[in-house]
Design brief:
Layout (H helix, E strand, L loop, with lengths): L1 H10 L1 H6 L2 H8 L21 H9 L17 E5 L5 E4 L3 E2 L7 E2 L8 E6 L6 E6 L5 E6 L9 E4 L4 E5 L10
Length: 172
């Protein structure tokens, strides 16, 4: 399986050169300024629903349109469903018409890590929580101005905290 991914990646190298500078810059950026938790994925399982665990720690994707967070319009913060690290502010949420909660930018660039993903053959930017390593979604360059970014997130990977409530303590 790893050999197949390597061959797919090599076959796409000419296409990589055609990608926009914005995408290549985002891939090169390192956001790992927070200390990652030394906790195996299996230890998160009892803290999450089975579906949330599959999304966060097996890279699964929930069905489009299935998340109640698509219709969440209150003022607040979206935190990682596993470790509760704040990832997105509600002011940056918008309806991308994709069926998944989407944001124009993260709350803090240091809270999300990025890596290339070739699961759909064409390279994408996958992003994850830097504390627990949980898969959140993918970053695309077709978002609204001024940044042009669409942070397309799995709703199961997030928890919404209304602004009037205190943020939960980070899980370790």
């Amino acid at each position: 399986m790893k050999r197949r991914l390597l061959l797919q990646g090599l076959a796409l190298l000419p296409a990589w050169a055609l990608l926009g500078n914005h995408v290549r810059t985002a891939l090169a950026a390192s956001s790992a300024t927070l200390t990652p938790l030394a906790k195996p994925a299996s230890e998160w399982r009892p803290l999450l629903s089975a579906a949330a665990w599959r999304v966060l720690f097996e890279g699964d994707t929930e069905p489009a349109g299935s998340s109640p967070l698509n219709d969440e319009h209150r003022d607040g913060t979206f935190v990682c469903a596993a470790c509760y690290l704040p990832l997105f502010d509600s002011r940056h949420k918008y309806d991308s018409k994709t069926g998944w909660p989407s944001f124009t930018q993260p709350l803090d660039e240091a809270h999300v890590g990025r890596k290339r993903d070739f699961k759909l053959i064409w390279p994408r930017i996958e992003y994850h929580c830097v504390r627990c390593g949980g898969h959140q979604g993918h970053l695309f360059d077709d978002g609204p101005p001024p940044r042009g970014e669409r942070w397309c997130n799995n709703g199961l990977a997030l928890r919404f905290v209304p602004r009037a409530e205190p943020l939960p303590e980070l899980r370790s």
